């Protein structure tokens, strides 16, 4: 089709202000970039499964595995070599029960993994642990259940306190209470302090939403959860409540607060960043990972730029620290420039 330009020519007055000038060369773009992405700000979540002799790939998270005890150490060593900020450890026990007792067992999969990883890379990066019962319970909930099947907040708090001590005794640097029980940060802080683990810090999963984007994680930790977590995780409709949760956790002694998921909740990341004076983390969760990987496999999205753009966007929204399954890969991409 031939475009018909208007008969009367448009008179263009050359713009005086030209934002494009600052975009004209890579050096200039780099000089004025407002946000940076650095390996030291990235935390790699790692899964270790009891009884494995070889790592097993998680089908819904291509490229992510459940580690054996040995392969976990290799992954942690690589994370340290790449200059990552830390690793977040998740344990998958062979046997689960209603009380999640594997979580408290000093010889349980997560407690052993903490000691292993701290021994391997403890000087080079921060070793963190997910402090929650859902990986250990046969019903898949983050706490102990009442007779009528609800999650019992205060009994669960006692279990979290003991679990925190078990992780600290195993050598962890930072625990991440992620069960969304009311008062969990205060109880964990108290349990640690009264056992003389005053130097173990707390990354509170403060604004954690009842999200469909945790889907692939259920496979990663072999969770049998039926139903949902809406009586304890937050309603995706609420942002002000996310700020409230973060402020409560800071008051209770959280050293860092976290928003989770990240991509759909960048407004919450920003609001929390503006409201607290501790570092803010954001968790780029399993479903966010799976979406990009699936689209890339179809050839519908360019994988590496999409990964870097995702992580940069989370940083730009205000996250000081980003937990992401792409942490090691992103660090390699950043090294290549
Ligand atoms: C709870 C926990 C979950 C995730 C991290 N810690 C699951 C949940 O709360 O439902 C999800 C992480 C992800 O989806 O990548 N132990």
UniProtKB/TrEMBL annotation:
Binding site for Mg(2+): 245
Biological processes annotated in GO: protoporphyrinogen IX biosynthetic process
Catalytic machinery residues: 208, 260
Lineage of the species this protein comes from: Bacteria, Bacillati, Actinomycetota, Actinomycetes, Propionibacteriales
Gene3D superfamilies (alphabetical): Aldolase class I
UniProt keyword annotations, A-Z: Heme biosynthesis, Lyase, Magnesium, Metal-binding, Porphyrin biosynthesis
Pathway: Porphyrin-containing compound metabolism; protoporphyrin-IX biosynthesis; coproporphyrinogen-III from 5-aminolevulinate: step 1/4
Gene Ontology cellular component list: cytosol
Family: Belongs to the ALAD family.
Function according to Swiss-Prot or TrEMBL: Catalyzes an early step in the biosynthesis of tetrapyrroles. Binds two molecules of 5-aminolevulinate per subunit, each at a distinct site, and catalyzes their condensation to form porphobilinogen.
Oligomeric and partner information: Homooctamer.
MF terms in GO: porphobilinogen synthase activity; zinc ion binding
Catalytic activity entry: 2 5-aminolevulinate = porphobilinogen + 2 H2O + H(+)
Name the UniProt record assigns to this protein: Delta-aminolevulinic acid dehydratase
The enzyme's E.C. designation: 4.2.1.24
Binding site for 5-aminolevulinate 1: 218, 229
């Amino acid at each position: 089709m031939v475009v018909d330009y208007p008969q009367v020519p448009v008179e263009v007055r050359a713009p005086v202000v030209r934002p494009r000038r600052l975009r004209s060369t890579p050096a200039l773009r780099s000089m004025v970039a407002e946000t940076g992405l650095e390996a030291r700000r990235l935390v790699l979540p790692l899964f270790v499964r009891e009884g494995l002799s070889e790592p097993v790939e998680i089908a819904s998270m291509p490229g992510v595995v459940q580690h054996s005890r040995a392969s976990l150490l290799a992954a942690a060593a690589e994370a340290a070599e790449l200059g990552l900020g830390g690793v977040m450890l998740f344990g998958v026990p062979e046997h689960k029960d209603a009380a999640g007792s594997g979580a408290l067992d000093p010889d349980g999969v997560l407690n052993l993994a903490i000691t292993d990883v701290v021994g391997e890379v403890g000087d080079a990066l921060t070793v963190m642990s997910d402090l929650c019962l859902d990986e250990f319970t046969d019903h898949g909930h983050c706490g102990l259940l009442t007779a009528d099947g609800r999650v019992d907040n205060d009994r669960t708090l006692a279990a979290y306190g003991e679990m925190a001590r078990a992780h600290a005794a195993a050598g962890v640097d930072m625990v991440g209470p992620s069960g969304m029980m009311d008062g969990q940060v205060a109880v964990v802080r108290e349990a640690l302090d009264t056992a003389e683990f005053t130097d173990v810090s707390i990354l509170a999963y403060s604004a954690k939403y009842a999200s469909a984007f945790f889907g692939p994680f259920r496979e990663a930790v072999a969770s049998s959860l039926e139903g949902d977590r809406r009586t304890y995780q937050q309603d995706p409709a609420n942002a002000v409540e996310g700020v409230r949760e973060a402020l409560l956790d800071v008051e209770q002694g959280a050293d860092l607060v976290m928003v989770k998921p990240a991509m759909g909740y960048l407004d919450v990341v920003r609001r929390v960043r503006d409201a607290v004076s501790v570092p803010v983390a954001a968790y780029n969760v399993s479903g966010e990972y799976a979406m990009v990987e699936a689209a890339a496999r179809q050839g519908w999205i360019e994988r590496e730029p999409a990964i870097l753009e995702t992580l940069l966007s989370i940083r730009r929204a205000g996250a000081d620290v980003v937990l992401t399954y792409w942490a090691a890969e992103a660090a390699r991409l950043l090294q290549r420039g």
